[in-house]
Amino acid sequence: MAAVSTKPSERLDELGIELPAVAAPVAAYVPAAQVGNQVWTSGQLPFVNGSLPATGKVGADVDPEDAYNLARTALLNALAAVDDLVGIDRVTRVVKVVGYVASEAGFTGQPGVVNGASDIVGEIFGEAGAHVRSAVGVAVLPLDAPVEVELIVEVADA
Predict the structure, then answer these.
(1) What sequence ranges are listed for the domain Endoribonuclease L-PSP/chorismate mutase-like (predicted)?
(2) For 104, which of 48, 57, 118, 128 could close a Cys bridge (C-beta 3.0–4.6 Å)?
(3) Nearest to 56 by CA among 104, 95, 112, 12
(4) In 3D, which of 115, 128, 151, 158 has the Cα closest to residue 6?
């Protein structure tokens, strides 16, 4: 990943990306919580304007390439939750990305799908976006979403 010298908000502008509104929780939880110098997000689905653009299992109902883009969208939703809580420019490092992929039996391409989240993190944060990660295949996700993404970031003091 190349070094990025601008603030994350400036980099988003350069990339032509506008963070979405924070997705409303679909159950009893908050979108993000700060613990010390870290912000942890709840699992974020790939909502676009309040709805899922695709549903079903990757490898059956959803192509892996489409799921890659859905993982990217879910990551942007997670960043929106971080931005709403503390401000995106306070992020000093992306610590961990966790991606869940609703997978057809036998589908083993979860890492490629979750790259949709990891790749956009690198584009926005450069070296500060180098993170640890899990890519997990599951039988089903809430609302029959194909992917769900969680994010942990380190933040600077206010």
Answers:
(1) 11-154
(2) 57
(3) 104
(4) 128
In the chain, which ranges are continuous DSSP H helix? Answer: 8-15, 64-86, 110-125
Question: Nearest CA to 74 among 43, 110, 102, 50?
Answer: 43
pLDDT at site 4: 45
Cα–Cα distances in angstroms (integers) from residue 17 to residues 13, 14, 132, in the given order: 6, 8, 24
Phi-psi region of 130 (alpha: psi -120 to 50; beta: other; left: phi over 0): beta
pLDDT of 5 reads: 56
108 three-state secondary structure = coil
| Domains of the chain, start order | 8-15+30-155 (3.30.1330.40)
* pLDDT 10s digits, 20-56: 999 989 899 999 999 999 999 999 999 999 999 999 9
What sign for the dihedral angle of Cα 132, 101, 150, 87? positive
